[in-house]
Inverse folding.
């Protein structure tokens, strides 16, 4: 009769597994960001939603009205006027700006351009100019009575340039925004181009691919993700258009109204009209529209990358 020796205590498998100890020290690292995020983003967002559900009335004070403010906003002609204007601005200005930025990035990335570092700094420099200073500078240039446009009109003896008339106002603002942000988007595209492995260029050269073939087959597909990011940023910036028309308004009071853009409309409703509830409603609607369009663009860009 044989007996089996029991395994030593060190080799015995415990019947009950000890529960993994949760280390809470990681929360200490994210706590500062979480606190700032809650105070700067979540709290104002929740408060804006709260304000949008109420309305200040002559009798009864601040009363709960549910979604009445949202229904009134969708029937507000001033809101639609500003929304259509920034939508046209988005459709026209953003593609032009991104194409210029992509062309500049491709030119700087090519080995045929001399002093590429100098051109990179020059193109990016307008982004370093504060927005208020840039708009004031362009406002002086646009002045048809006192600025560069006025001097050109005097030279030709006629009112050839009138950047502040209603037909040209949106184009004038688009020129300012394009001048400011071409360099910013160029830097995004240029950084993406620098991540392309050199082996791809060598393989394309061996296969006899020329410069244009290399651009359309290697460079542009490689920057597709950067184009999606720049497009999303540009969409957000277009729907948030505020600084340029608000600063130019004293120079063109008959052209730029208080509801020229939805952000200007919400600003004037709040600070000039004391209609905080309705202003919060406009802001919430614009935030939702911006988020939906940006999500659709990101979704479509992600699908194209996976193909």
């Amino acid at each position: 009769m044989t007996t089996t020796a029991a395994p030593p205590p060190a080799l015995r498998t415990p019947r009950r597994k000890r529960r993994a100890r949760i280390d809470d020290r990681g929360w200490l690292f994210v706590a500062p960001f979480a606190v700032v995020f809650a105070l700067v983003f979540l709290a104002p967002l929740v408060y804006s939603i709260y304000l949008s559900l109420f309305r200040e009335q002559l009798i009864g004070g601040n009363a709960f009205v549910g979604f009445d403010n949202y229904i009134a906003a969708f029937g507000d002609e001033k809101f639609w006027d500003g929304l259509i204007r920034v939508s046209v601005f988005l459709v026209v200005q953003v593609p032009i700006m991104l194409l210029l930025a992509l062309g500049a990035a491709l030119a700087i990335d090519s080995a045929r351009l001399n002093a590429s570092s100098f051109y990179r700094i020059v193109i990016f420099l307008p982004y370093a100019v504060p927005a208020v200073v840039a708009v004031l500078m362009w406002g002086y240039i646009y002045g048809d009575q006192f600025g560069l446009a006025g001097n050109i009109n005097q030279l030709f003896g006629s009112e050839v340039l009138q950047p502040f008339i209603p037909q040209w106002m949106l184009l004038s603002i688009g020129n300012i925004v394009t001048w400011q942000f071409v360099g910013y988007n160029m830097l995004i595209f240029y950084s993406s181009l620098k991540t392309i492995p050199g082996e791809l260029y060598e393989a394309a050269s061996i296969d006899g691919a020329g410069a244009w073939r290399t651009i359309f087959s290697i460079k542009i597909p490689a920057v597709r993700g950067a184009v999606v990011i720049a497009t999303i940023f540009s969409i957000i910036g277009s729907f948030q258009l505020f600084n340029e028309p608000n600063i130019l308004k004293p120079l063109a009071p008959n052209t730029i109204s208080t509801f020229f853009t939805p952000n200007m409309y919400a600003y004037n409703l709040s600070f000039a009209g004391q209609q905080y509830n309705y202003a919060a409603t406009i802001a919430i609607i614009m935030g939702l529209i911006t988020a939906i369009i940006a999500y659709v663009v990101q979704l479509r860009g992600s699908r194209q990358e996976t193909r």
Observations:
- The first helix runs from residue 26 to 52.
